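Sample log: Type II secretion system protein.
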Amino acid sequence: MPIDLTSTQLQQLIIALSAMSTFGFILCVAWPWIVRDRVSERLKFAGNHRSVVRRSTQPMRGVKTVTRSKLFAKEPNRIFAGIVHKLRLARPGEEGETSKFLRMAGMRGRAPLVTYLASRMIAAVVMPGVTFAYVTLVLRPDLPTVTVAVMACVGAVIGFYLPKLYVGNLIAKRHSSLRRSWPDALDLLLICVESGMSSEAAFRKVAEEIGSQSKELADEMSLTTAELAYLSDRRQAYENLGSRTGLDSIKAAVLGLIQSEKYGTSLGQMLRVLAKESRDFRMAAAEKKAASLPPKLTVPMILFFLPVLFAVIATPAVLQALGVS
């Protein structure tokens, strides 16, 4: 049964639902300041006091401290961190999978994880109100209330999965850049290894040279160089490279590097074979993409080219049949 937009009941319903949505969003954002976390404050005070005591008791050292990268040193937003903490969005099992998912997009550290989890919840709260206001006021004012409620629920689901779609798009773009530049990186690694460089020096040199072609691959190889320097197990550094990128070609190279470290096999021969396979795979992907162009061009040609061609061919005959000079 359609509802009249000018009726007092519908206007009150719209005002009440909008007020509830606004109140829920404000409450979700302001919750960290409404309820104080006494335990976190005491732990923070104890940690600060412990660091002060440690600095006062230890002697000054002449070794320079290595500063962390801005990507890792960035602290999470206080509002987002409060939302994640109060609503317990970061579960232990899911947090590891989400962190791995974000690392594949190049987002490392605690701040991207907190922002991702909080944005999913905020979007799920805000989108129903936006959907309800748009449907009732702009799209179809005479829709039944049940239909509007269903659309608002759909908006909540879309808002919840929208950040995941955005991160997935970043992963696809990052994979495209890595896949395009990885064969060249293997060739450079082969040259460096056969010239007598160690694995760390080879990775460092390739990271410097490949940056102009793929910034993403340069970042991954620079991080692998750092892990090879400070991790006790070199195998873990190689495995981290494969898990961060998520590409089969890089995982195959990682497996070859691990076997070379473990059994002492020829690293140069392994890199030569992997580089050739990666180039063949890149060429096959390019040929597949080129072979898929004719089917994709069929529909645009039928819709746009053929009508114009028929008009150009048939117009003189039609004018001649009509006797138009």
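Observation: Confidence is low (pLDDT under 50) at residues 1-5, 49-73.
Observation: The chain has 13 helices and no strands.
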